[in-house]
Write a structure and sequence with these properties.
about 110 residues; alpha+beta; OB fold (Dihydrolipoamide Acetyltransferase, E2P); five-stranded mixed β-barrel; globular
Length: about 110
């Protein structure tokens, strides 16, 4: 029995090490508020360059921009809101649900300050 108890810390350490090697899963969520400094139309949507690093629960590596894709069900509404916020200098907050292959956060909703 004593031998088995001595092995217990080794087992716990090994299991902990295994779980620590897996990346943490992040959930979709709201970004920190930002102002838009540049907009770049793309074939697949639009990139929005921000005035400050954008933090989001997704933890996307690129914090200088977010992207709205044309495949978003409300692309016309989102892009209109973002263009209006850009032209009027309003602060926006967006909902990021995933990271694109180049590390930019993909947004599916947006809100602008009043």
């Amino acid at each position: 029995m004593a031998k088995n108890m001595m092995r217990f810390p080794i087992y716990v350490s090994a299991i902990t090490a295994i779980f620590l090697t897996f990346p943490a899963h992040s959930d979709p969520g709201l970004t920190s508020p930002f102002k838009i400094i540049e907009l770049y139309p793309r074939e697949v949507g639009m990139d929005i360059v921000t005035d400050q690093p954008v933090t989001s629960p997704m933890g996307c590596p690129r914090t200088d921009a977010v992207r709205v894709l044309m495949t978003a069900s409300n692309y016309a509404v989102i892009s209109s809101l973002l263009l209006t916020a850009f032209s009027s200098g309003k602060t926006v907050t967006v909902w990021v649900d995933s990271c694109d292959s180049d590390g930019v956060g993909k947004l599916i909703a947006a809100a602008a300050e009043r």
